[in-house]
Amino acid sequence: MSRPKIIAGNWKMNCTPAETKELITSLVASERSDTEVVTIVCPPFTSLSAASELLSKSSIVLGAQNLSEHESGAYTAEISASMLVATGVKYVIIGHSERRQYYYETDSLINAKLKIAINTGLFPIFCVGETLEEREAGNSQEVVSGQLLNGVNGLSVENLKNLTVAYEPVWAIGTGKTATPEMAQDMHKFIRENMAKIEPAIANSTPILYGGSVKPDNAAGLLNQPDIDGALVGGASLSADSFMKIIEAA
Length: 250
Ligand code: PEP
Fold this sequence. Notes:
binds phosphoenolpyruvate
């Protein structure tokens, strides 16, 4: 089963609209027309409009980093799925470890966000991953399978077809430490086996991205693994040059 290669940039809390214009202009200028890699950029909310306009003639796809679990209403400062769709957003990161850790997002909140995203026509990039303590205690698989199972609870087969999973070991995010290609492949295979238990019909077609200090010099080793279908890139997505090199390695 051939799955698309996906490289997604998570810009986190970086880039004003002016800086977004600069970065996207560089990305679009070096975009290759012969690539089959699906390239996604996820700027902060305040830069989505500027990004959307600049990407209108590009094959680079727009993503967001979060959304509300509610449809609309009195939820001060929240951003809804339909607001994202109306701004040209196609993908949305859900369950990033920074949201779980600093904003106390639970599996059930993440589940509600996945449901509203898919029901509104967005494609979620659903993040799972263990902390260093959990890995050292030998609990990585248990943690990741629990996050997966709880996250997708109640999603139909049709819903699951729109899902991309990102395995991001928390100890590798922004630390410069990355999982070896073999470690990452083992977990990706385990995630695919779990997806098969959840819904056999979609396991082979679900893209599973790796995230955690992916850089131009380690990307090829990771991206050549059979169950690694792409990367979710933080720091290295803030430079057009390094992000493009990762896309070329895919
Ligand atoms: C991320 O935040 O999703 C991430 C993988 O960050 P970094 O590449 O900087 O480790």
